[in-house]
């Protein structure tokens, strides 16, 4: 009986090691998306950046539901046209249905140039909590002297809520569909995930227990009364 229990404990402890080693990143979730099936989007879009001597920018609105989230990244459907192949985007608060205060900016490079473009990832550059029930904007932030010109493709799900800005003028509502984008974050209410160092120590301890059980099993007599 004792020998059976010891042997059964080895695979159980090994499974425990694998369980804890896979814990990191488990709470990342989609806060908002208007991409279609298979991350699809429209082949048409809004040109942002330097256009005929002025700087055009656009924004898409989203509302956080469920819980508060720590913002981790944004994704936008973009195609590169000309100038420097990099683009600046940001998260803004909502001001009566228009983009408000700029909360954070981030930059992406290597934007696809072949039509219809592709989904470009922007990683968060500082801590930012997106509050449940609050509305925010993902906005392009291309201003002088940057000469980048890209197309931010529209969503193909009929989602409305586009805002546009010419140079440093006021943001105004646009008549076109919302650009295609996704917001990612980690739920503030999710259970805390152990630090990588803590997980390593835990896995090492579990592995030591496995070795200890194996050694004990080798020393047991063949028959136990």
Could you explain the architecture of this structure?
This protein is 20% helix and 40% strand. It starts with a helix and ends in a 6-residue tail after the last helix. It has 2 domains: 50 residues; 160 residues, Jelly Rolls (Sandwich), CATH 2.60.120. It is an alpha+beta fold. The chain contains 2 helices and 13 strands; from the N terminus they run αβββββββββββββα.
CATH fold node name of the largest domain: Jelly Rolls
In total, how many beta strands? 13
Average of pLDDT: 83
* Helix fraction by DSSP (H/I, runs of at least 4): 10-25%
Structural class: alpha+beta
Defining key terms:
20% helix, alpha+beta, Jelly Rolls, 13 strands, 2 domains
Outline:
The protein is an alpha+beta fold and 225 residues long.
Secondary structure layout plus pairing:
Elements: H1 2-21, E1 28-33, E2 45-51, E3 54-63, E4 69-82, E5 86-94, E6 99-109, E7 118-123, E8 129-130, E9 135-140, E10 149-153, E11 162-166, E12 172-173, E13 181-187, H2 196-219
Antiparallel strand pairs: 1-13, 2-3, 2-10, 3-9, 3-11, 4-7, 4-8, 4-10, 4-13, 5-6, 5-9, 11-12
């Amino acid at each position: 009986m004792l020998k059976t229990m010891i042997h059964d404990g080895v695979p159980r402890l090994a499974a425990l090691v694998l369980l804890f080693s896979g814990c990191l990143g488990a709470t990342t979730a989609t806060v908002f998306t208007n991409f279609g099936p298979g991350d699809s989007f429209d082949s048409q879009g809004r040109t942002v950046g330097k256009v005929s001597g002025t700087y055009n920018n656009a924004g898409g609105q989203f509302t956080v539901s469920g819980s508060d989230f720590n913002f981790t990244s944004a994704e936008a459907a973009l195609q590169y046209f000309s100038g420097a192949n990099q683009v600046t985007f940001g998260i803004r608060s909502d001001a009566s249905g228009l983009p408000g205060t700029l909360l954070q900016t981030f930059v992406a490079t290597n934007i696809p140039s072949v039509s219809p473009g592709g989904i470009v990832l922007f990683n968060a550059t500082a801590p930012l909590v997106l509050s449940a029930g609050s509305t925010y904007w993902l906005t392009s932030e291309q201003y002088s002297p940057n000469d980048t010109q890209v197309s931010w493709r529209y969503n193909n799900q009929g989602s409305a809520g586009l805002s546009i800005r010419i140079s440093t003028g006021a943001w105004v509502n646009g008549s076109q569909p919302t650009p295609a984008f996704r917001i990612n974050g980690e739920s503030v209410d999710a259970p805390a995930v152990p630090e990588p160092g803590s997980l390593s120590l835990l896995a090492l301890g579990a592995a030591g227990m496995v070795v200890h059980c194996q050694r004990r099993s080798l020393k047991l007599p063949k028959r136990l009364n």
